[in-house]
Design a protein that fits this description.
The chain is an all-alpha fold and about 80 residues long. It has a single domain (about 5-70), classed as Orthogonal Bundle (Rna Polymerase Sigma Factor, Chain: A). Helices cover about 75% and strands about 0% of the residues. The longest helix is centred in the N-terminal third of the chain and has 24 residues, at about 5-25. It is elongated and about 45 Å long. The termini are far apart. InterPro entries: ECF_Sigma-70_Domain, RNA_pol_sigma70_r2, RNA_pol_sigma_r2. This is RNA polymerase sigma-70 region 2 domain-containing protein. It holds the Pfam family Sigma70_r2.
């Protein structure tokens, strides 16, 4: 089995759990789906050298994507105008 197939199998096995983690962090099913998809794109590009625990590694990647999304959300937030 090649590396990509191995990775895809682990990702598909853990997809529901990864989506649940993302949903708990982001509070939105749509954003959770986006985070899991973005995590797959990153994971697919990075390779699996040195990965001993695929489930933990996948969870870490999804969590980091979610944190980036939360930071981005916070940076876009506008401050309410005091002149109103």
């Amino acid at each position: 089995m090649d590396e990509r197939t191995w990775l895809m199998q682990h990702f598909e096995q853990d997809r529901a759990r990864l989506r649940a983690v993302a949903y708990r962090m982001l509070g939105s099913h749509g954003e959770a789906d986006d985070a899991v998809q973005e995590a797959w794109l990153r994971i697919d590009r990075s390779g699996t050298d040195g990965v001993e625990n695929p489930a933990a590694w996948l969870t870490t990647v999804v969590a980091r994507v979610c944190l980036n999304m939360l930071r981005s959300r916070k940076a876009r937030r506008e401050n309410p105008s005091k002149d109103t």
